[in-house]
Amino acid sequence: MDESRRKRRDFFQNIAIVLLALSAAFLIAQTQLYSLGLDAGNGYLQYLAGNSSQTPDVSQTALTSLSAPVRLAVTGVYGGRYGSVTLTTAGGDFEPVGGLLREALRSVQSFTLCENKAFLEALNGTSVYCDFLEPLPLPVLAGLVGTSLDSDLSVRRLVVSARETDEAMLYLWCEGDVCRQGTSAVSAEELVSVVSGYELNGAYFALDGGEPDSAGAAPCSLFPLELPELPVLSSASALPDSSALLSALGFYPRTNSRYTESGGVEVITDGDRTLRLNPDGSIRYRSGGDPALTIASAGEEPTVTEAVMGANALLNTLLAGQTSEAGLYLTGVRQTERAAILTFGWQSGGVPIRFDHGGSAAEVTLSGGVVTGLMLRFRQYADTGETSLLLPLRQALAIAVRQVGAELSIGYVDDGAAASARWLAD
After folding, report:
1. Regarding the domain delimited by 233-383, which CATH topology (the fold level of the hierarchy) does it fall under?
2. For residues 75 and 302, what is the distance between their CA atoms, to the nearest angstrom?
3. Which of 165, 275, 367, 373 has the fewest CB atoms nearer than 10 Å to its CB?
4. Which helix or strand (DSSP H or E) is residue 292 part of?
5. Residue 181 and residue 177: Cα distance in Å, rounded?
6. CATH for 60-202?
7. pTM, entire model
């Protein structure tokens, strides 16, 4: 009897040993897989941290890989005009103008203050006009066209305009409606060559007075003679699997340090760091003082262009694998005493997308080079095959005239289920 019991005991002990061995092997495999996952992610985290073996060349020209919406107007030698409100800096139609701006920006030695009237008058002659929708740091605008520039200015609009002499002036419409001008090395002949490459299509500015009520709109409101046919876009929340987000942000993807609040918000913690996954498809990250994510920089702190490239890289990593008719673009850089806040919006085909309740598509908060906060709205946009119905310009102007001096433009408005193009008055 004792012998029988001993054999059974040994049998169960052997089974237990085998199970423990298998369990240990499984845990080791899981640890190795997790380590591999971290190493793969660390390629990105090391990029953010500025590891020299992993860091791509974060140069000014790298900003040309970003796609920013731009409204373009080209005024011919005899006064005719080409205009488009559906372009991006990455598009082929912008390339000739991009080259012209690159030469103009790199050649101006200094800018002096000028009256807004001088900027507006420059639009009447042979000229190229670009509107980037929001004031952006001038080094970022320079980077978008492939050059570098050290400046503290934030600029929304630029004009390269011919003078009576064989030279072209560069005018800047800066934040706060302050204008500046500088003499460029672009010749009048070079400007005419670029202008001649565009087929004039009858576009006009509000300051031209082409419509009875256009005088009541902001002077730089740009109107195409024929309204663009823009699709209606379906819109939906596109929050990815949480493990992908956790890996991208350096969290352990299988962490049990999570709970769900009564409103449906899932909260995941890792030390002092917190990630909140909201039911509306947005996420919010807070570092809690943990410098786990940092932006690559050549110096002690990132320059504005390094900050933009790093923030854009982080957001695109979070969006990896998603397909959409829209992409992110920079809408502003705001500096406070303790942090820099970079805001981004969605755009489709060069047309900005706004949320009907307002707010940004993404925000990245930096303290020095550390990412201390992040918000991103995951949205998926798709062409429905339908066309947005835009009011005729004359009717839109008649409505907008109630807001004297408002800028009239075309943009998408996302109501949560669809995004359709309409006239916007700002």
Report:
1. TATA-Binding Protein (3.30.310)
2. 38
3. 165
4. none
5. 13
6. 3.30.1490
7. 0.86
Q: How many CB atoms are located within 10 Å of the residue 184 CB?
A: 23
Decide: residue 365, CB within 10 A, 0-12 exposed, 13-18 middle, 19+ buried: buried
> Residues with Cβ < 8 Å from 54, sequence gap 6 or more?
42, 43, 46, 47
Work out the angle at residue 184's Cα, subtended by the Cα atoms of residues 117 and 139, and round it to the nearest 5 degrees.
Answer: 85
pLDDT in tens, the chain (426 residues): 555 555 555 655 655 555 555 554 444 334 333 333 333 333 333 334 444 333 334 444 478 889 999 999 999 999 899 999 999 999 999 999 999 999 999 999 999 999 999 999 999 999 999 999 999 999 999 999 999 999 999 999 999 999 877 889 999 999 999 999 999 999 999 999 999 999 999 999 999 987 777 878 999 999 999 999 999 999 999 999 888 899 999 898 888 899 999 999 999 999 999 999 999 999 999 999 888 899 988 988 999 999 999 999 999 999 998 889 999 999 999 999 899 999 999 999 999 999 999 999 999 999 999 999 999 999 999 999 999 999 999 999 888 878 888 999 999 999 999 999 999 999
Helix 95-107, helix 188-195: angle, nearest 10: 160
What are the start-end ranges of the H helices in 85-159?
95-107, 116-122, 138-144
Q: Tokens in use for 414?
A: 């996302």
* Sequence ranges of the domains in the chain: 60-202, 233-383
Sign of CA dihedral 56, 57, 60, 61: negative
**Listed residue (281, 343, 280) closest to 312, CA to CA:** 343
DSSP string, 181-246: EEE-S--HHHHHHHHTTS-----EEGGGT-STTGGGS-TT-EE-SS----EEEEEEE----HHHHH
DSSP state of 294: B
Residue 33: other Cβ atoms inside 10 A: 10
Look up residue 3 and give its two tokens.
Answer: 């012998």
For residue 116, what are its two tokens?
Answer: 């807004």
